Automatic annotation (TrEMBL):
Gene Ontology molecular functions: magnesium ion binding
GO biological processes: DNA recombination; DNA repair
Organism: Campylobacter lanienae NCTC 13004
The protein's name in its UniProt record: RusA domain protein
Length: 251
């Protein structure tokens, strides 16, 4: 994009001490620019000035007044001018030819096009659908049911484990019925206490063998009933001379 302004007169020099001449030159140049349909240009600008002279003069002396005169007509601020060239040539008549071009950078242009046509619509789409996209990407956590833990069954008279265990123990002791007169037991908390009364007709050796036989019989019975995983067996003496205390505790 460019525009050309032709001013067919002699420009005012900065060395001219006549302020009226400077003002008249700038007003005249603005009028000519408007008549030639000058327009505001944005972005980086390149300005080329050609001064055709009837009499030789310093060309750098006309730059300030010329650029200031076109401010607001061809550009908003002369700071947008990134390159300025000025030249002169001999002619029978004085004339200024001012060419203003916009520095078009193809890479910047392409970036703007890509941003406006692709990136900006994409960002707008992502922003408007962000919540839905985020929800779709994050799977909902699976809530596993909390397993129910059954409380341990206490040993008591109403419990099937206690009943079955007691029956098994009594059955084991009854196998020694010729050597045991009475079998007493009681339930205290989580333990069963049994007092097999060994026959008084037995000798000391026979009583010892009977106790050993009772122990083996109980262990075999509990092993067969899978009770050893839940109970432990201990033996101790009772106050009665012929009684043997057998305690079975839950582990």
């Amino acid at each position: 994009m460019k525009q050309i302004i032709v001013y067919k007169d002699k420009p005012a020099s900065i060395n001219n001490k006549n302020d009226n001449a400077k003002t008249a030159y700038q007003n005249s140049l603005r009028k000519v620019a408007n008549q030639q349909d000058a327009f505001i240009m944005d972005g980086d600008l390149i300005v080329d000035i050609l001064w055709q002279q009837s009499n030789p003069a310093d060309i750098d002396n006309i730059i300030k007044y010329t650029l200031d005169a076109l401010k607001g007509i061809c550009y908003n601020d002369d700071k947008s001018i990134i390159k300025l060239t000025i030249s002169k040539e001999h002619s029978t008549n004085d004339q200024l030819t001012i060419t203003i071009k916009s520095k078009f950078i193809i890479s910047k242009f392409i970036k703007k096009i890509v941003f406006k046509t692709i990136i900006k619509p994409l960002l707008r789409y992502i922003n408007s659908n962000y919540q839905d996209m985020l929800t779709a990407q994050i799977p909902k956590p699976k809530i596993e049911p909390i397993p129910k833990i059954s409380p341990p069954k206490p040993i008591n008279q109403n419990n099937d484990i206690t009943t079955n265990l007691t029956q098994d123990i009594i059955s084991a002791l009854n196998s020694q019925k010729n050597k045991i007169d009475i079998v007493e037991f009681s339930i205290k908390g989580q333990k069963i206490i049994l007092y097999p009364q060994i026959s008084q007709n037995l000798s000391a050796k026979e009583r010892s063998n009977t106790i050993k036989s009772i122990q083996e019989s109980l262990i075999n019975t509990l092993s067969n009933r899978d009770y050893l995983a839940n109970f432990q067996i201990s033996f101790g003496s009772n106050a009665s001379k012929n009684a043997k205390k057998i305690v079975i505790n839950k582990i």
